[in-house]
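Lab channel / #folding
Pinned by the channel admin:
"Please post every new chain as: sequence first, then the structure tokens as a reply. Keep commentary short and put observations after the output so the thread stays searchable."

First post following the new format, from NK:
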Amino acid sequence: MSTGTVVLVGTVLFAVGCSTGGTGLRDGGPARTESVAKTGAPSSAPADHDAGTATALVPQASGKPAAKVDPIALIKADPKISAETKRDLKPCSGKEYPVDVSYGKVTGGPEVDIVVNVLSCADALGRGSFVYRAEGASYENVFSDEQPPVYAEIDRGDLVVTKPVYGKSDALSYPSGEDLITYRWNGERFTEQDRVHTDYSNVVDGGTLPAPAVSPKN
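Reply from TO:
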């Protein structure tokens, strides 16, 4: 097995959605498909994070998973993800993790790919983005970006990564700009196809508004 492959075992864990904000999936539908996943290993087959196994259902030949995967188990078992990201990935409250999960075709294979975005609890900023490709009875990490803020989406078969750009005095809610990077699968890996940088105006959306006109005194 390659170091980037996360082994699956036969028990299913379901990821339940919650409603936090985000940029979201561009292929129609809500921004957060599985926002803030609730996870918990069943007593009959607990997820073995230390041994590198993640609990999920083996993909079906139809290209649609019969059930949702456990994104927390995938991340914890993934040798390509840093120890810092794994250590910081904790529930925001109860068993609710700050994780968004999207299912769609982005690597051109017969099975559905999985895009996982790890967010921060306090401000919902993207802490890391990862893409998993089905490889038989396992999922392999084929894309990782752990340089926050970052958020990955599926856009008409391409992988689109959004990176807000902040100046020294910018508030988290009002970045100075944004980088939009489009990646395409070439059969072996993602390669950058396009990059668009946008500078936001500083006179709207929380920026400095021009001073009002003052009539001269007589």
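NK: Residues 130 and 144 are 5 Å apart (CA to CA).
TO: also worth noting, The radius of gyration is 20 Å.
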